[in-house]
């Protein structure tokens, strides 16, 4: 398959950063946004990228993106989601925080809380929170994934099942329009399912790019969570599920409008 030098560079940028944006590409290549939109449409037609509003994602239907690339995707949106989740969790609460770059944003926003007991299978979360004396951190045992510091496997599942906590903060690699919560690693999914089953209030945190992605392993369903925090949800079927299942939907990008 022949790719022009500009197309090849766009693909590499998307691979390195997880996504590319029309305006940034237009500036980078010194061309019009219309030219970039045509480039992205051509690359998406060849299934080399997946179109999103304002840009495109590097596709990841079977394999997850590298951790650093995922961390860069929607970084500002994840920070806002993290702050919104932290506002729901009071001092002196017990909670699970699982694997994911958005759940890590929640852990960052919780650092000003007192009296928390945090149980996690995320080494990055444990390392960030352990130095705060007002927060007790308990980390699961199991197999550590070198790619992102996630602790997975049966040992982690058994560990999680020893607890019944006030809150769980979970993420997902993809959210299907039918409400299915999806991931890539079946070992991680088993831990996430144990977390959902052993929390009184489950908070799903995910930015809107997860509506554009796919993954092969089912975690559960949106109707199983109590609160869903995202930057924006424009998927009617997902909004309907939240309404019918009485899932509180919080959209951080709409907060400035008083919604």
Task: Give an overview of the whole structure.
With 259 residues, the protein is of the alpha/beta class. It has 2 domains: 5-57, Orthogonal Bundle (Arc Repressor Mutant, subunit A), CATH 1.10.10; 71-251, Rossmann fold, CATH 3.40.50. The protein is 38% helix and 23% strand. The chain is built from 10 helices and 15 strands. It has a 7-stranded parallel sheet, with helices on both faces. β5, α7 and β6 (135-139) form a beta-alpha-beta unit. α5 packs across α6 (101-109). The protein starts with a helix and ends in an 8-residue tail after the last strand. The relative contact order is 0.12. The model has no long low-confidence stretch (mean pLDDT 90).
What attributes does this structure have?
259 residues, Arc Repressor Mutant, subunit A, 3-stranded antiparallel sheet, 7-stranded parallel sheet, globular, alpha/beta
């Amino acid at each position: 398959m022949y790719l022009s030098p500009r197309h090849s560079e766009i693909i590499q940028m998307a691979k390195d950063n997880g996504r590319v944006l029309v305006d940034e590409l237009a500036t980078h290549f010194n061309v019009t946004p219309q030219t970039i939109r045509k480039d992205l449409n051509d690359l998406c037609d060849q299934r080399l990228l997946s179109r999103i509003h304002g840009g495109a994602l590097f596709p990841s239907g079977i394999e997850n993106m590298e951790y650093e690339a995922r961390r860069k995707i929607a970084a500002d949106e994840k920070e806002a989601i993290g702050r919104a989740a932290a506002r729901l969790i009071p001092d002196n609460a017990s909670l699970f925080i699982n694997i994911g770059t958005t759940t890590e944003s929640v852990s960052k926003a919780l650092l000003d809380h007192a009296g928390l007991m945090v149980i996690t299978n995320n080494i990055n979360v444990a390392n960030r929170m352990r130095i705060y004396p007002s927060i007790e951190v308990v980390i699961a045992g199991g197999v550590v994934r070198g790619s992102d510091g996630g602790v997975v496997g049966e040992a982690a599942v058994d560990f999680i099942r020893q607890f019944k906590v006030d809150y769980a903060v979970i993420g997902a690699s993809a959210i299907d329009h039918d409400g299915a919560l999806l991931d890539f690693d079946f070992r991680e999914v088993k831990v996430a399912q144990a977390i959902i089953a052993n929390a009184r209030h489950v908070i799903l945190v995910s930015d809107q790019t997860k509506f554009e992605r796919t993954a092969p392993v089912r975690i559960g369903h949106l109707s199983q969570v109590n609160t869903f925090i995202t930057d924006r949800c424009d998927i009617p079927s997902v909004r309907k599920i939240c309404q019918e299942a009485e899932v509180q939907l919080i959209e951080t990008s709409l907060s400035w409008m008083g919604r």
